[in-house]
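STRUCTURE REQUEST FORM
Protein name: 2,4-dienoyl-CoA reductase [(3E)-enoyl-CoA-producing]
Source organism: Venustampulla echinocandica
Requested output: structure tokens
Priority: standard
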Amino acid sequence: MAIPRSQYLSSVWRDGIFDGKVIFCTGGGGTICSAQVRAMVHLGANACIIGRNVAKTEAMAKSIATARKGAKVIGIGEVDVRRIDTLEKAVERTVKELGGIDYVIAGAAGNFLSPISGLSANAFKTVIDIDTIGSYNTLKATLPQLLISAAKNPNTATNPSTGGRIIFISATFHYTGMPLQTHAAVAKAGVDALSASVALEYGPRGITSNVLTPGPIAGTEGMARLGGSQPEGAGNPLQRWGSVKEIADGTVYLFSDTGSYVNGEVLVVDGGGWRAPASMGSQEMAYPGFLLADLSTKAKL
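Status: completed
Returned output:
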């Protein structure tokens, strides 16, 4: 059963703006990334989503395909972004079945709550490997196709359908520092730096590289794990959590004609939350009391 457009895409976008294009997305079975891809498919793109769980990834691909009649969406499971060879095989299949890759979302990520005292070296490395190394591997595996797309669909002020675009999914933890999120903060700082370097090195070849940073998004796995028992919107200037539609809209903005001259930037879609005083979930987790009381969450990796 198809999901109503209003749940994953605003009405301002014109149908067909991504006709003939292909998007490749790691972490595509997740709540946020699947909405991003669903929006692109609704607007004309075909897609390949990547994940580790075969059943979940394939089921999500079938669901996303309902966004547009005739859409082609591949779901490839058993892909570990920490292993570039698995990504390269997924790219080969995407090119064979869909004809190429024009847009990439590097969205695979891992996270949990842990103080440094309970954060093992292995747990810290695991998040770096998934988020930072995984983003780099995604770039490396797809870069040849992005270069081809950029050459075929040149980034000019008059071309409404450019190609060769990549978005890295990040977070805001490293802007100010965040208790219990040292591993994720360090990993995402690396992702932001990676995107900036890609923009400089490959901008001359027509590729744009940007970061999209979601804030707390309602109904996601991340909020279920990390949000604690705090009321929805607590601490956010807009007094609410975001929706997956708002992240999908940001994706369309960056990949479409509207974002052609946006390169090397970080688009934060969080309602201004990162500027507000930090909190980590419920009242009993208010800073710094929970640290002084040694209410620790041990890493289990």
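Reviewer notes: The two ends are 37 Å apart (CA to CA). The domain at 12-293 is CATH 3.40.50.720 (Rossmann fold).
Form closed.
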